[in-house]
Write a structure and sequence with these properties.
Number of helices: 3
Strand content: under 5%
Helix content: over 70%
Oligomer: single chain
Number of strands: 0
Number of domains: 1
Order of helices and strands: HHH
Low-confidence stretches: none
Distance between the termini: 38 Å
Shape: elongated
Length: about 55
């Protein structure tokens, strides 16, 4: 993807919103920021959980 498009499309690909919301302006850049921050937290928590599970063995 071109520069920045991955950041714009990430919430769509993760199922948090629909592409139409981007295309028609329903979603603001602030909305996208909040969704991307939430995804960062979710993925970091998943990574930590996997590390924890791996280290338990």
């Amino acid at each position: 993807m071109n520069d920045g498009e991955d950041w714009l499309m990430r919430p769509v690909l993760e199922g948090l919103c629909r592409y139409e919301g981007l295309a028609d302006g329903t979603l603001s850049l602030e909305d996208l920021l909040v969704m991307n921050q939430a995804l960062d937290v979710k993925h970091e928590n998943e990574r930590r959980w996997l590390d924890h599970e791996k280290n338990k063995r």
